[in-house]
């Protein structure tokens, strides 16, 4: 609904820089996870074709990389204005209410992500306490699970910033619309 502001100084500029930094960090993590996923699956296919038997741990590493990729990808969708949201009520209220409704929407989204971050954090703590491990790899699972509360907390922060400084909120893009 709104475009990104480019204020040269002031608190909005610091928040804009924070949002850019968060997006860049998410992009690095998701790209790395995607590369790991692609390489492991490719290697598994090649080994399977050559030897008739794949790499035993490949699927599990692929699944773990995919978990990180998809959960951190939530932030990229929000940062780019491409996240999914119901639009059924968009035209019920007068256009003059748009700014207030957008702030409320962003605040509610931030609160929902904060609640999810707390729940995910408690799950990670329980996983650490129980020393849950991957069956095939025997790796502890909490480092991968930790991507959930981190992603949700970052999303809560991002949407809280959007609620506070609506000018920093990206323009929403429709289905099939390119940047």
Strands, helices and their partners?
Elements: H1 11-51, H2 58-80, H3 98-130, H4 142-145, H5 147-164
Helix pairs in contact: 1-2, 2-5, 3-5
How would you describe the overall organization of this protein?
With 179 residues, the chain is mainly alpha-helical. The chain has one domain (11-84, 97-168). 66% of the residues lie in helices and 0% in strands. It has five helices and no strands. The chain has helices at 11-51, 58-80, 98-130, 142-145, 147-164. The longest helix has 41 residues, at 11-51. The chain starts with 10 loop residues before the first helix and ends in a 15-residue tail after the last helix.
Defining traits:
179 residues; 0% strand
Which stretches are poorly predicted, pLDDT < 50 over at least 5 residues?
A: 1-7
Quickly count the domains.
1
Q: Could you give the order of the helices and strands?
A: HHHHH
Radius of gyration: 20 Å
Largest pleated sheet: none
- Classification by helices and strands: mainly alpha
The total beta strand count reads 0
For the terminal residues, how far apart are their CA atoms?
Answer: 14 Å
> How would you sum up the global shape?
elongated
Helix content: 55-70%
Mean of the pLDDT scores?
89
Helical element count?
A: 5
Give a short overview.
The chain has helices spanning 11-51, 58-80, 98-130, 142-145, 147-164. The relative contact order is 0.17. It has 179 residues and is mostly helical.
